[in-house]
Design a protein that fits this description.
115 residues; 3 helices; Aminopeptidase; 4-stranded mixed β-sheet
């Protein structure tokens, strides 16, 4: 199951990167020694909210996830008052990280099942 999830994640990221402009995405990367060590991208969901869809980083660099998040937030258009960091997948480290930013609101998660 984990392998299948990673396959779908990679497929969706490749699609997004290939259609970056068409999808209205904005992104950023951190580079060390000409090598990308972290990247992120997202898009607006309203006039005041920007959603971060993907955040990936080389965990050998301490604090890399908070750094890419903070640096990217500095570069999105100023009209966006809120940043939605999306789903934490129930992973305790991701949840803790999201809560450390003192979110304005946590939204309920719902699932749709088609019979």
């Amino acid at each position: 199951m984990q392998h299948e999830n990673l396959f779908h994640e990679k497929k969706s990221m490749n699609f997004a990167l290939e259609h970056f402009s068409e999808l209205g995405l904005l992104g950023g990367a951190l580079v060390v020694d000409n090598r990308i060590i972290a990247f992120t991208y997202g898009s607006p969901v309203s006039n005041t909210t920007f959603s971060i869809h993907v955040e990936k980083a080389d965990i050998r660099f301490e604090g890399i996830f908070s750094t890419i998040c903070q640096e990217f937030a500095k570069h999105i258009p100023q009209q966006y008052v809120y940043i939605n960091r999306e789903e934490d997948l129930g992973i305790s480290g991701l949840r803790k990280s999201k809560l450390s930013y003192h979110p304005y609101r946590l939204l309920e998660k719902y699932a749709v099942v088609v019979n």
